[in-house]
Design a protein that fits this description.
single chain; 399 residues; alpha+beta; 13 strands
C-alpha cells in the first residue's frame, strides 16, 4: 500500500498544467521581445543621431577655419586684386538644384533637392613660415638705377630656411612669397632648388599681376631685407566653392549620398573652374544655407519674415537681385556713413563688417519608421546646426 501511494505522488505535470505554463511563458517572452526591440531601436537611433551630430559639428568647425580666410589678400594690402562682377570675391548662389556628379536629373528618392552654393576668394598661405638666409647681398632697385645696370639672377635669388625638409618640398614654382620686414611680394618664376631644410628660389614678375594685385615689375627689391626675416609662402588668387553634391560612395545605395564638398581653383574672371582635388567635408548632408547680415543680425538677407528661406535662385535673381539687394537695403538703413551700398566695388566685404550665418543640416545614414512623423513610412532624422560669426577679414578696410 505504501508503494502505491509513493508512485501516485511522483507524477509529473498534467497536460493542462503544461499548456497553462506555456501560455504564460509565451506572454512573458512576447513582452520581453518588445522591450528588447525598443532597447535595440533606441541604441541604433541614439548612435545614428550622435553620428549625425558629429558630422554636423565637424563640417561647421571646418567652415569656421575656411571662412576666416575669405577675402584674405596677401599680395598687396593697398591694392586689391582685380576681379569681375561676373565672379565677385564673395557671393552666394541660393537654392541651386543638387545633382549627382555628372548627372542632369535628380534622383527622386532622395529628399535633398535644393541647396545654396558659397563662393569666396582668398590667397592661400602655406602652413609654415620660412626665414631668409644669409646670401650674397641683392641690389635694390635704387642701387641698380644708380649703377645703371640691369638686375642679374643673383639679385633675384633668395635662400630660405623652411625649418623642415617636408616644408621645403612644398615650395613650388608659381607660388608667391612675402618678406615680413616690408611685406614686399615676389613670384617664384623657376622651379625651386631644395637642399635639406632650405630652398633656393628665383623671383620675378608674376604673369597674373593684374589678378593678384602685385605690381607688374615684380622684383628687384625696393629695400634691403634683413637676414632671418620671416617669409610667408602662399598660393595666390584662389577661389573656393562649398555645395552639396550627390556622390556614389556606397555601392548598395543607387541614389548616392548627399555630401557637403569643397572645390578650389585658380581665380578666373569669367567662371569658376575647380583645379584641385575635391574634398568631401561631410556625408549625409541634407541642407546647406547661407545668409548675410550687415545690421548685427536684426535681419538676414535671404530669409522671409517667418525665418524661412526665400525661393529665389541663381546669380542674377538669387544673388545680385536677391541677397545682395537685401544687403544694400540693410546698409542704407543702418550701415556705416561711408558704406551705404555694396555697389561700386566688388571688395565691399573687406570694408563692411558682415555677419555670415551658415545652416548645415545633416541626416541619419539610415531611414527608419521611428523617424517618420506618421510612424509608418521610412524617413531620415535631420539635425540642423547654425554657424554665426564675422569672418576675420570682413570689415578690415584695405586703405
Amino acid at each position: 500500500m505504501a508503494k502505491a501511494l509513493l508512485r501516485r505522488s511522483a507524477r509529473g505535470f498534467s497536460l493542462v498544467e503544461l499548456l497553462v505554463a506555456l501560455v504564460f511563458t509565451m506572454v512573458l517572452m512576447a513582452g520581453m521581445a518588445n522591450v528588447y526591440k525598443a532597447s535595440l531601436t533606441t541604441y541604433y537611433t541614439s548612435g545614428e543621431s550622435l553620428s549625425s551630430a558629429r558630422r554636423n559639428r565637424m563640417s561647421v568647425d571646418l567652415l569656421v577655419d575656411d571662412l576666416n580666410t575669405a577675402c584674405m589678400y596677401l599680395t598687396d594690402l593697398s591694392v586689391p586684386p582685380t576681379v569681375s562682377a561676373a565672379v565677385p570675391p564673395f557671393y552666394i548662389l541660393p537654392n541651386m538644384p543638387v545633382l549627382k556628379s555628372g548627372a542632369t536629373a535628380y534622383p527622386s528618392l532622395d529628399p535633398t533637392v535644393f541647396s545654396d552654393e558659397l563662393y569666396f576668394y582668398m590667397d592661400e598661405a602655406l602652413a609654415f613660415e620660412g626665414a631668409l638666409g644669409v646670401a650674397a647681398p641683392q641690389k635694390t632697385a635704387a642701387e641698380l638705377v644708380v649703377a645703371g645696370t640691369a638686375p642679374s639672377t643673383a639679385d633675384n635669388t633668395f635662400v630660405i630656411d623652411c625649418g623642415s625638409a617636408t616644408y621645403a618640398k612644398q615650395v613650388k614654382q608659381g607660388q608667391l612669397f612675402s618678406f615680413k620686414d616690408s611685406w614686399e611680394t615676389a613670384y617664384i618664376k623657376d622651379v625651386p632648388t631644395v637642399s635639406g631644410t632650405t630652398v633656393s628660389v628665383v623671383a620675378g614678375a608674376s604673369p597674373d599681376a593684374s589678378i593678384t594685385g602685385m605690381g607688374s615689375a615684380g622684383l628687384p627689391s625696393k629695400a634691403k631685407h634683413l637676414p632671418n626675416s620671416g617669409i610667408v609662402f602662399f598660393l595666390p588668387a584662389q577661389m573656393v566653392r562649398y555645395r552639396i553634391e550627390i556622390l556614389n560612395l556606397d555601392p548598395s545605395n543607387a541614389n548616392g549620398i548627399p555630401c557637403l564638398v569643397r572645390d578650389q581653383g585658380t581665380y578666373n574672371t569669367t567662371a569658376f573652374t575647380p583645379t584641385a582635388a575635391q574634398q568631401v567635408i561631410a556625408e549625409n548632408v541634407s541642407g546647406f544655407k547661407v545668409y548675410l547680415s550687415t545690421n548685427a543680425g536684426a535681419s538676414w538677407a535671404g530669409t522671409l519674415a517667418s525665418g524661412l528661406p526665400k525661393s529665389y535662385i541663381g546669380f542674377t535673381l538669387g544673388w545680385d537681385g536677391g541677397i545682395r539687394t537685401e544687403v544694400d537695403a540693410q546698409l542704407a538703413a543702418s550701415g556705416r556713413p561711408d558704406f551705404k551700398t555694396t555697389r561700386g566695388t566688388e571688395h565691399w566685404m573687406r570694408s563692411v563688417p558682415t555677419l555670415v550665418r551658415v545652416d548645415v543640416t545633416t541626416r541619419t545614414a539610415t531611414q527608419r519608421s521611428e523617424y517618420s512623423t506618421t510612424g509608418a513610412a521610412l524617413a531620415y532624422r535631420n539635425l540642423t546646426q547654425s554657424l554665426v560669426f564675422v569672418p576675420r577679414h570682413s570689415g578690415l578696410t584695405m586703405n
